[in-house]
Amino acid sequence: MADVPLDHMQDHHAATVAARRHFLTRFVIYGLLAIFAAIYLVPLLVVVLNSFRDQQEIARNGLISLPRSFRLEAWGQAWSTYCIGGTCEGMQRNFYNSLKMTIPATIISTVVGAMNGYILSKWRFKGSEALFTCMLLGVFIPGQISLMPWAFILGNLGLSNSTYGLIVIHVIQGISFTTLFCRNYYVSIPDDLIKAARIDGAGFWRIFRKIILPLSSPILIVTVIWQFTGIWNEYLFGVVFTSGQQQPITAALVALTASGTNVRAYDVMSAAVLIGALPPLLIYLFGGKYFVRGLTQGAIK
Amino acid sequence: MSTLTIRSLRKNYGSVEVLKGIDLEAQNGEFIALVGPSGCGKSTLLAMIAGLETVTSGEIRIDGRLVNSVAPKDRDIAMVFQSYALYPTMTVRENITFGMESRRVPKPQQDEAVKRVAAFLQIEPLLGRKPGQLSGGQRQRVAMGRALVRDPKLFLFDEPLSNLDAKLRVDMRTEIKKLHHRVGKTTVYVTHDQVEAMTLASRIAVMHQGSVQQFDEPATIYNRPANMFVAGFMGSPAMNFLPAELGEEGGRPTVVLPTADGKTASLPIVQALPSDTPRQLLLGIRPEHIYRFDPDLARRKPSIAQIDAVVELVEPTGAETMAVLRLGGKEITGRFDPDGTPRMGETVTLGIDMARACLFDPTTQRLI
């Protein structure tokens, strides 16, 4: 009889110990996560703050300190008046260049990837698997390797030092990824749907438009985000194949940091960097949750 | 009028022979069931009839027209898939009209057809819904609606009931039977469920390893299976096979079986035997043709033969009771009326209806 309350007390004790341990584990986990988040976020914070500080103040107090002033001039300068390599038009032209390159390249590579994926998953033919494997190789080949061939091709096409040349490069370099994404996603769409539609009298295009495309939004969002950020952030091809007014914003940013006359204009640089980072950031903000969802959807099957 | 004729149809995937010379035919309005275990080639055969798979050699004719290389949409067929294959982004109405839309049928005619089919299948309230909002049975109905709306020459069903739960499956089975009765279209129905094949079909093609084992009416398939595969596949519990020897008693042929006590029992053979009947035989008896012996029964059925067996296990199912019996060295299953159920461990005298028994040649596995 005496055992019962004793047992009870022990149980109670064990429960408190377990709860305390649980709390400790949580604390450690969240603590670590917070530290890592800070490691990622502090540099961004420094840049954001510096873009609103006065250049003199930065010079006086150093790069890393809390702002004593607040001004937007650096943003204006970075956008339209700052001098890069002799022209004083700020980043705006390069920003437009990047848009002019990224938007068409994203759209074209996504459309081509969707078509490729549709064919490679639903209209297989002899050798289609081998073809897919070859296309996959493009995912693993680093961009540097193709620099020389591209120089040759662009030269022959008469597209060197132009945004169009970069569009061609990004479309073709991107097709491996877009095809992989779309093909893996379409594989999970049951073949019976295609068969039913064929018996219903629908052809290749009608099946794509009426059945495949309406099911594609998750993977198309993933592909668009992936391509947009990838192409927008790409630097190597931009800096190698264009110069001056034709450069995309990534190349221009480097030119900007290199073209400092005597004083380094940290405020303008910070603003310019943020202008350059804004479009991909916005795309992630709006499409981020689809991105994670879509990536795993494509990956499971 | 619509008929289906298939002659020496073959299908190879590389070096693998999936169909080894199929011959089948369906008369106008017939309901043909293709039944067999998975991997027997029945679904491939159906896909070839539909035009979704290419023909390696042989002929498929619909209404006498050779359709080997005709596109699915031009074969004038409709198909119901196991997965229903409803277009997930379209409403039920759009699912049903998709085919007509593809064929550019005028809008008023489409509306008319949808109205007719929806009323026929009682799916009017579902027309505005998406397939995701439907239950299994409703999806099944819509899938049938999509096929029906076409008024095709040939209906093809690919295991349409196997995704439904047991009760619904029985209901839908009845409904498909009614539907066929009312529409009267020539139908080819693929299933791995022998009960579905038995209940629905006017003729059954039992398939195994890429060839048709037997193609006949359900009763013939069940009572006179062409070989041991058909005998074992059709019927549940399966037919019992007992190794036996050919004997003779009073000038009449018998089968001689070893019994529990090490002796032998000989049962008279009712059917006429061909002259080349082998000495070694396999006696095939369906569980329902095994009774508890009583003289009254023997008087009513003169073909009843007596044999003793030990009851090993009893499995009551409610409507009937299955008993596992030991006869000689073999276990057999008997199907008994719950009232006359033998007890476990008991030695019973069985009455075997020899008129319903089948004899097989153990080497060729064929029916004698």
Outline of the structure:
The complex is a heterodimer of chains A (301) and B (368). Chain A has helices spanning 3-51, 55-61, 73-81, 92-122, 128-140, 147-157, 163-187, 191-199, 204-212, 217-233, 236-241, 249-258, 266-300.
Set out the fold topology:
The complex is a heterodimer of chains A (301) and B (368).
Chain A: H1 3-51, H2 55-61, H3 73-81, H4 92-122, H5 128-140, H6 147-157, H7 163-187, H8 191-199, H9 204-212, H10 217-233, H11 236-241, H12 249-258, H13 266-300
Chain B: E1 4-13, E2 16-26, E3 31-35, H1 42-50, E4 57-62, E5 65-66, E6 77-80, H2 92-102, H3 107-121, H4 136-148, E7 154-158, H5 166-183, E8 186-191, H6 194-200, E9 203-208, E10 211-216, H7 218-223, H8 228-233, E11 240-249, E12 252-258, E13 264-268, E14 280-285, E15 290-292, H9 295-300, E16 304-316, E17 321-327, E18 330-336, E19 347-353, E20 358-360
Parallel strand pairs in B: 3-8, 3-9, 6-7, 7-8
Antiparallel strand pairs in B: 1-2, 1-4, 4-5, 9-10, 11-12, 11-14, 12-13, 14-20, 15-19, 16-17, 16-19, 17-18
